[in-house]
Fold this protein.
Amino acid sequence: PKIPEWEQVLSVGAVCQNMLLAASALGFGAQWLTEWYSFDDDVNSVLGLREGERMAGYLYFGSMAEKPGERARPSLEERVSRWG
């Protein structure tokens, strides 16, 4: 192909992330999952994937019954260190 595979993979990730951000900005709930069926040959065949093509995952969109609570996150000091 004209575009290297690595750039195609990065582009798919960027598209998925942007769709999730857009859904959130519009007030929708959204989630990106890579479940077992992303790797199932029968599922991929039904979806029209050809030999050598892969599924990046599935994006789920919908209205939220309630806004999810904030989850516990590590402190910045636990995750970041100075280098050099």
The chain has a mean pLDDT of 92. The helical segments are 5-25, 41-46, 76-79.
